[in-house]
Amino acid sequence: MDKLKLAIVGCGRISDCYRDVFQKLSDSVSVVYAVDKDIEKAKNFAADFSCRYTDHYEDILEEELDVIHLCLPHYLHKPYSVLALEHGKHVLTEKPMAMSLQEADEMLEAEKRSGKLLGCIFQTRYNESVSILKRRLEEGIYGKLLTASSILTWNRPDSYYAGSDWKGTWEYEGGGTIIDQAIHSIDRVRYIVASDVEWVEASIFNRTHPKLFVEDTAEAQIQFQNGVQYHLFATNTNGFDTPIQIEFCGEKGRCGLIQDMGYSYLGEKYEEFREVKKSVTVGKDYWGSTHIMQLEDFYRAVREGGKPLADGVEGRKTLELVKAIYLSAKYRKRIYLPFTDEKLTKEEMGKILFY
Protein backbone atom coordinates (compact mmCIF):
# COMPACT_ATOMS: atom_id res chain seq x y z
CA MET A 1 0.00 0.00 0.00
CA ASP A 2 1.46 3.32 -1.06
CA LYS A 3 1.63 5.95 1.63
CA LEU A 4 -0.72 8.91 1.35
CA LYS A 5 1.22 12.11 0.88
CA LEU A 6 0.12 14.84 3.29
CA ALA A 7 0.62 18.53 3.93
CA ILE A 8 -0.40 20.47 7.02
CA VAL A 9 -1.23 24.15 6.66
CA GLY A 10 -1.15 25.96 9.99
CA CYS A 11 1.33 24.80 12.64
CA GLY A 12 -0.18 26.40 15.73
CA ARG A 13 -1.52 24.80 18.92
CA ILE A 14 -3.84 22.23 17.35
CA SER A 15 -1.05 20.95 15.11
CA ASP A 16 0.30 19.03 18.12
CA CYS A 17 -2.61 16.59 17.70
CA TYR A 18 -1.79 16.12 14.04
CA ARG A 19 1.90 15.59 14.75
CA ASP A 20 0.98 12.83 17.18
CA VAL A 21 -1.42 11.18 14.71
CA PHE A 22 0.98 11.43 11.75
CA GLN A 23 3.69 9.76 13.81
CA LYS A 24 1.37 6.94 14.86
CA LEU A 25 0.19 6.39 11.28
CA SER A 26 3.66 6.62 9.76
CA ASP A 27 3.28 3.19 8.12
CA SER A 28 0.47 4.49 5.91
CA VAL A 29 1.02 8.26 5.55
CA SER A 30 3.95 10.51 4.78
CA VAL A 31 4.15 14.20 5.69
CA VAL A 32 5.58 16.03 2.69
CA TYR A 33 5.08 19.69 3.60
CA ALA A 34 4.46 21.92 6.63
CA VAL A 35 3.14 25.43 6.01
CA ASP A 36 2.75 28.40 8.32
CA LYS A 37 3.03 32.15 7.87
CA ASP A 38 5.46 31.99 10.80
CA ILE A 39 8.30 30.16 9.09
CA GLU A 40 9.79 29.02 12.40
CA LYS A 41 6.59 27.17 13.29
CA ALA A 42 6.60 25.44 9.92
CA LYS A 43 10.29 24.58 10.32
CA ASN A 44 9.76 23.14 13.80
CA PHE A 45 6.86 20.97 12.66
CA ALA A 46 8.77 19.78 9.59
CA ALA A 47 11.79 18.77 11.70
CA ASP A 48 9.87 15.81 13.16
CA PHE A 49 9.22 14.41 9.68
CA SER A 50 12.29 15.54 7.75
CA CYS A 51 9.94 17.17 5.28
CA ARG A 52 9.92 20.46 3.42
CA TYR A 53 8.41 23.62 4.85
CA THR A 54 7.34 27.05 3.63
CA ASP A 55 5.49 30.18 4.63
CA HIS A 56 3.66 30.43 1.29
CA TYR A 57 0.58 28.25 0.75
CA GLU A 58 0.87 28.57 -3.03
CA ASP A 59 4.19 26.69 -2.90
CA ILE A 60 2.46 23.37 -2.23
CA LEU A 61 -0.47 23.51 -4.64
CA GLU A 62 1.46 22.04 -7.58
CA GLU A 63 3.15 19.40 -5.42
CA GLU A 64 2.22 15.72 -5.58
CA LEU A 65 -0.04 15.56 -2.54
CA ASP A 66 -3.06 13.45 -1.64
CA VAL A 67 -4.46 15.30 1.39
CA ILE A 68 -4.10 18.84 2.68
CA HIS A 69 -4.96 19.40 6.34
CA LEU A 70 -6.10 22.96 7.12
CA CYS A 71 -5.52 24.14 10.70
CA LEU A 72 -6.17 27.81 10.07
CA PRO A 73 -8.19 30.78 11.32
CA HIS A 74 -11.84 30.37 10.37
CA TYR A 75 -11.90 33.00 7.64
CA LEU A 76 -9.25 31.13 5.65
CA HIS A 77 -11.08 27.79 5.50
CA LYS A 78 -13.06 28.57 2.37
CA PRO A 79 -10.40 30.16 0.13
CA TYR A 80 -7.70 27.63 1.07
CA SER A 81 -10.08 24.68 0.67
CA VAL A 82 -11.30 25.79 -2.74
CA LEU A 83 -7.74 26.33 -3.98
CA ALA A 84 -6.66 22.89 -2.80
CA LEU A 85 -9.68 21.16 -4.36
CA GLU A 86 -9.15 23.00 -7.62
CA HIS A 87 -5.58 21.68 -7.63
CA GLY A 88 -6.75 18.11 -7.19
CA LYS A 89 -6.13 17.64 -3.46
CA HIS A 90 -8.43 16.10 -0.87
CA VAL A 91 -9.11 18.55 1.99
CA LEU A 92 -9.77 18.03 5.68
CA THR A 93 -10.31 21.35 7.44
CA GLU A 94 -10.66 22.17 11.09
CA LYS A 95 -14.07 23.39 12.26
CA PRO A 96 -16.11 25.38 11.49
CA MET A 97 -16.37 24.52 7.83
CA ALA A 98 -16.63 28.17 6.78
CA MET A 99 -17.69 31.63 7.87
CA SER A 100 -21.05 31.52 6.07
CA LEU A 101 -23.41 29.11 4.33
CA GLN A 102 -22.59 30.76 1.03
CA GLU A 103 -18.91 29.98 1.57
CA ALA A 104 -19.78 26.41 2.57
CA ASP A 105 -21.77 26.01 -0.65
CA GLU A 106 -18.82 27.26 -2.69
CA MET A 107 -16.65 24.64 -1.02
CA LEU A 108 -19.15 21.87 -1.77
CA GLU A 109 -19.36 23.00 -5.38
CA ALA A 110 -15.56 22.94 -5.64
CA GLU A 111 -15.56 19.42 -4.15
CA LYS A 112 -18.08 18.26 -6.74
CA ARG A 113 -16.14 19.77 -9.64
CA SER A 114 -12.83 18.33 -8.46
CA GLY A 115 -13.98 14.80 -7.71
CA LYS A 116 -11.97 14.99 -4.48
CA LEU A 117 -13.16 14.74 -0.87
CA LEU A 118 -13.89 17.56 1.56
CA GLY A 119 -14.18 16.86 5.27
CA CYS A 120 -14.59 18.94 8.43
CA ILE A 121 -13.00 18.09 11.77
CA PHE A 122 -15.57 17.06 14.37
CA GLN A 123 -13.43 14.51 16.17
CA THR A 124 -15.75 14.13 19.18
CA ARG A 125 -18.25 12.32 16.91
CA TYR A 126 -15.79 9.45 16.90
CA ASN A 127 -15.76 8.90 20.66
CA GLU A 128 -16.62 5.32 21.56
CA SER A 129 -19.19 6.55 24.07
CA VAL A 130 -20.89 8.63 21.37
CA SER A 131 -21.17 5.54 19.17
CA ILE A 132 -22.68 3.53 22.03
CA LEU A 133 -25.26 6.20 22.83
CA LYS A 134 -26.23 6.66 19.20
CA ARG A 135 -26.69 2.93 18.69
CA ARG A 136 -28.78 2.53 21.86
CA LEU A 137 -31.02 5.45 20.95
CA GLU A 138 -31.49 4.08 17.43
CA GLU A 139 -32.44 0.71 18.90
CA GLY A 140 -35.13 2.41 21.00
CA ILE A 141 -33.79 1.20 24.33
CA TYR A 142 -34.89 4.44 26.01
CA GLY A 143 -38.18 4.65 24.15
CA LYS A 144 -39.09 7.58 21.98
CA LEU A 145 -36.49 10.34 22.27
CA LEU A 146 -38.06 13.50 23.70
CA THR A 147 -35.36 16.00 24.63
CA ALA A 148 -31.66 16.71 24.47
CA SER A 149 -29.49 19.20 26.33
CA SER A 150 -25.90 20.35 26.40
CA ILE A 151 -24.10 22.46 28.99
CA LEU A 152 -20.66 23.98 28.48
CA THR A 153 -19.11 26.08 31.24
CA TRP A 154 -15.53 26.97 30.38
CA ASN A 155 -13.08 29.77 30.97
CA ARG A 156 -11.55 31.99 28.32
CA PRO A 157 -9.81 34.99 29.93
CA ASP A 158 -8.84 38.15 28.08
CA SER A 159 -5.34 36.71 27.65
CA TYR A 160 -6.80 33.94 25.46
CA TYR A 161 -7.81 36.56 22.91
CA ALA A 162 -4.96 39.03 23.43
CA GLY A 163 -2.40 36.98 21.54
CA SER A 164 -4.55 36.57 18.43
CA ASP A 165 -5.48 38.91 15.60
CA TRP A 166 -8.56 36.87 14.63
CA LYS A 167 -10.07 35.18 17.68
CA GLY A 168 -12.99 36.98 19.26
CA THR A 169 -13.99 38.79 16.07
CA TRP A 170 -17.02 38.58 13.80
CA GLU A 171 -14.89 39.38 10.78
CA TYR A 172 -12.34 36.58 11.12
CA GLU A 173 -13.72 34.02 13.60
CA GLY A 174 -17.44 34.45 12.95
CA GLY A 175 -18.50 34.65 16.60
CA GLY A 176 -17.47 33.64 20.09
CA THR A 177 -18.27 30.75 22.39
CA ILE A 178 -20.87 29.19 20.06
CA ILE A 179 -18.71 28.88 16.95
CA ASP A 180 -15.46 28.29 18.84
CA GLN A 181 -16.21 26.22 21.94
CA ALA A 182 -19.81 24.92 21.85
CA ILE A 183 -19.79 23.88 18.19
CA HIS A 184 -18.55 20.39 19.07
CA SER A 185 -21.41 19.85 21.55
CA ILE A 186 -23.86 21.12 18.95
CA ASP A 187 -22.45 18.76 16.34
CA ARG A 188 -22.56 15.74 18.66
CA VAL A 189 -26.18 16.37 19.60
CA ARG A 190 -27.17 16.89 15.97
CA TYR A 191 -25.32 13.74 14.94
CA ILE A 192 -26.88 11.58 17.65
CA VAL A 193 -30.42 12.93 17.23
CA ALA A 194 -30.05 12.29 13.47
CA SER A 195 -32.67 14.75 12.33
CA ASP A 196 -32.67 18.05 10.49
CA VAL A 197 -33.50 21.18 12.49
CA GLU A 198 -36.90 22.83 12.14
CA TRP A 199 -36.40 26.06 14.12
CA VAL A 200 -34.14 27.86 16.59
CA GLU A 201 -34.77 30.49 19.27
CA ALA A 202 -31.65 31.90 20.92
CA SER A 203 -30.05 34.68 22.90
CA ILE A 204 -26.41 35.68 23.15
CA PHE A 205 -24.63 37.94 25.62
CA ASN A 206 -21.24 39.39 26.42
CA ARG A 207 -20.98 39.30 30.21
CA THR A 208 -17.29 39.61 31.08
CA HIS A 209 -15.33 40.48 27.90
CA PRO A 210 -16.11 44.15 27.23
CA LYS A 211 -13.14 44.52 24.88
CA LEU A 212 -14.70 41.97 22.51
CA PHE A 213 -17.80 42.24 20.33
CA VAL A 214 -18.58 38.51 20.28
CA GLU A 215 -20.63 36.50 22.74
CA ASP A 216 -19.19 34.81 25.81
CA THR A 217 -22.57 33.36 26.88
CA ALA A 218 -25.44 31.87 24.89
CA GLU A 219 -28.62 29.86 25.28
CA ALA A 220 -30.89 28.34 22.68
CA GLN A 221 -33.97 26.18 22.23
CA ILE A 222 -33.82 24.04 19.11
CA GLN A 223 -36.63 22.02 17.57
CA PHE A 224 -35.64 19.04 15.42
CA GLN A 225 -37.96 17.83 12.67
CA ASN A 226 -38.43 14.50 14.45
CA GLY A 227 -39.93 16.34 17.44
CA VAL A 228 -36.91 16.31 19.76
CA GLN A 229 -36.42 19.54 21.73
CA TYR A 230 -32.80 20.50 22.37
CA HIS A 231 -31.76 23.07 24.98
CA LEU A 232 -28.26 24.52 24.76
CA PHE A 233 -26.31 26.59 27.28
CA ALA A 234 -22.72 27.69 26.77
CA THR A 235 -20.45 30.18 28.49
CA ASN A 236 -16.73 30.82 28.69
CA THR A 237 -17.06 33.03 31.79
CA ASN A 238 -16.63 30.18 34.29
CA GLY A 239 -13.65 30.07 36.65
CA PHE A 240 -12.25 26.96 34.93
CA ASP A 241 -13.14 24.40 32.27
CA THR A 242 -15.67 21.91 33.63
CA PRO A 243 -16.58 18.68 31.80
CA ILE A 244 -19.14 19.16 29.01
CA GLN A 245 -22.51 17.63 29.86
CA ILE A 246 -24.82 16.25 27.17
CA GLU A 247 -28.03 14.38 27.98
CA PHE A 248 -30.83 12.65 26.06
CA CYS A 249 -34.19 11.88 27.65
CA GLY A 250 -36.55 9.25 26.30
CA GLU A 251 -39.89 7.86 27.43
CA LYS A 252 -38.22 4.93 29.25
CA GLY A 253 -34.93 6.40 30.46
CA ARG A 254 -32.09 8.78 29.82
CA CYS A 255 -28.46 8.68 28.83
CA GLY A 256 -25.67 11.10 28.19
CA LEU A 257 -22.07 12.16 28.32
CA ILE A 258 -19.92 13.84 30.92
CA GLN A 259 -16.99 14.87 28.75
CA ASP A 260 -16.04 11.49 27.22
CA MET A 261 -17.73 9.25 29.80
CA GLY A 262 -21.08 7.83 28.78
CA TYR A 263 -23.83 7.00 31.27
CA SER A 264 -27.25 5.42 31.20
CA TYR A 265 -30.32 5.40 33.47
CA LEU A 266 -32.84 2.72 32.51
CA GLY A 267 -35.35 2.06 35.26
CA GLU A 268 -33.29 1.34 38.38
CA LYS A 269 -30.26 0.32 36.38
CA TYR A 270 -27.37 2.78 36.10
CA GLU A 271 -24.20 2.15 34.16
CA GLU A 272 -21.17 3.99 32.87
CA PHE A 273 -18.99 3.37 29.84
CA ARG A 274 -15.70 5.17 29.57
CA GLU A 275 -13.86 6.20 26.46
CA VAL A 276 -10.91 4.02 25.59
CA LYS A 277 -8.23 6.48 24.52
CA LYS A 278 -6.96 5.11 21.24
CA SER A 279 -4.25 7.56 20.50
CA VAL A 280 -3.79 11.26 21.01
CA THR A 281 -1.78 11.89 24.13
CA VAL A 282 -0.94 15.56 23.59
CA GLY A 283 -2.84 18.83 23.52
CA LYS A 284 -5.76 20.09 25.55
CA ASP A 285 -8.07 17.62 27.32
CA TYR A 286 -11.12 19.15 25.66
CA TRP A 287 -9.70 18.29 22.22
CA GLY A 288 -10.35 14.66 23.12
CA SER A 289 -8.31 11.69 21.94
CA THR A 290 -10.08 10.84 18.70
CA HIS A 291 -8.43 12.96 16.01
CA ILE A 292 -6.73 9.75 14.91
CA MET A 293 -10.07 8.03 14.35
CA GLN A 294 -11.36 10.86 12.19
CA LEU A 295 -8.17 11.03 10.16
CA GLU A 296 -8.20 7.25 9.66
CA ASP A 297 -11.81 7.48 8.50
CA PHE A 298 -10.94 10.24 6.04
CA TYR A 299 -7.91 8.35 4.70
CA ARG A 300 -10.07 5.23 4.28
CA ALA A 301 -12.54 7.22 2.17
CA VAL A 302 -9.66 8.62 0.09
CA ARG A 303 -8.29 5.13 -0.57
CA GLU A 304 -11.50 3.15 -0.96
CA GLY A 305 -14.09 5.69 -2.06
CA GLY A 306 -17.29 6.65 -0.29
CA LYS A 307 -17.76 9.46 2.20
CA PRO A 308 -16.20 10.05 5.60
CA LEU A 309 -18.50 10.34 8.60
CA ALA A 310 -17.90 14.09 8.93
CA ASP A 311 -17.94 15.20 5.31
CA GLY A 312 -18.62 18.64 3.86
CA VAL A 313 -22.39 18.18 3.88
CA GLU A 314 -22.30 17.39 7.59
CA GLY A 315 -20.01 20.34 8.21
CA ARG A 316 -22.49 22.64 6.48
CA LYS A 317 -25.43 21.32 8.54
CA THR A 318 -23.68 22.08 11.81
CA LEU A 319 -22.63 25.49 10.51
CA GLU A 320 -26.25 26.19 9.53
CA LEU A 321 -27.39 25.52 13.09
CA VAL A 322 -24.66 27.78 14.48
CA LYS A 323 -25.63 30.58 12.11
CA ALA A 324 -29.32 30.15 12.97
CA ILE A 325 -28.46 30.70 16.64
CA TYR A 326 -26.75 33.98 15.79
CA LEU A 327 -29.53 35.21 13.51
CA SER A 328 -32.20 34.35 16.08
CA ALA A 329 -30.28 36.37 18.66
CA LYS A 330 -29.83 39.25 16.25
CA TYR A 331 -33.50 39.55 15.33
CA ARG A 332 -34.88 38.25 18.65
CA LYS A 333 -37.21 35.85 16.89
CA ARG A 334 -37.57 32.22 15.91
CA ILE A 335 -35.53 31.26 12.85
CA TYR A 336 -36.85 28.48 10.64
CA LEU A 337 -34.46 26.38 8.59
CA PRO A 338 -33.46 26.62 5.82
CA PHE A 339 -32.90 30.37 5.82
CA THR A 340 -30.98 33.03 3.96
CA ASP A 341 -27.65 33.59 5.70
CA GLU A 342 -26.11 37.01 6.10
CA LYS A 343 -22.87 38.59 7.26
CA LEU A 344 -22.74 39.60 10.91
CA THR A 345 -20.75 42.75 11.68
CA LYS A 346 -19.16 44.01 14.87
CA GLU A 347 -21.35 47.13 14.86
CA GLU A 348 -24.73 45.40 14.63
CA MET A 349 -23.85 42.49 16.92
CA GLY A 350 -22.36 44.87 19.48
CA LYS A 351 -25.77 46.51 19.83
CA ILE A 352 -27.25 43.12 20.76
CA LEU A 353 -24.52 42.07 23.16
CA PHE A 354 -24.38 45.30 25.12
CA TYR A 355 -27.98 46.55 25.02
Tags for this entry?
2 domains, Rossmann fold, six-stranded parallel sheet, alpha/beta, 355 residues, Dihydrodipicolinate Reductase, domain 2
SSE topology:
Elements: E1 4-9, H1 15-24, E2 29-35, H2 39-47, E3 52-54, E4 67-70, H3 77-86, E5 90-93, H4 101-114, E6 118-120, H5 128-138, E7 145-153, H6 158-162, H7 177-193, E8 197-205, E9 217-224, E10 229-235, E11 245-250, E12 253-258, E13 261-266, E14 269-273, H8 291-304, H9 312-331, E15 335-336, H10 346-353
Parallel strand pairs: 1-2, 1-4, 2-3, 4-5, 5-6, 7-10
Antiparallel strand pairs: 7-11, 8-9, 8-15, 9-10, 11-12, 12-13, 13-14
Helix pairs in contact: 3-4, 4-9, 5-7, 7-9
Walkthrough of the structure:
- With 355 residues, the chain is α/β, with parallel strands linked by helices.
- The chain folds into two domains: 4-123, Rossmann fold, CATH 3.40.50.720; 127-276 and 312-353, 2-Layer Sandwich (Dihydrodipicolinate Reductase, domain 2).
- The protein has helices spanning 15-24, 39-47, 77-86, 101-114, 128-138, 158-162, 177-193, 291-304, 312-331, 346-353; strands at 4-9, 29-35, 52-54, 67-70, 90-93, 118-120, 145-153, 197-205, 217-224, 229-235, 245-250, 253-258, 261-266, 269-273, 335-336.
- A hairpin with a 2-residue loop joins strand 13 and strand 14.
- Helix 3 (77-86) packs parallel to helix 4.
- Residues 5-119 form the Gfo/Idh/MocA-like oxidoreductase N-terminal domain.
- It comes from Oribacterium asaccharolyticum ACB7.
- Residues 133-254 form the GFO/IDH/MocA-like oxidoreductase domain.
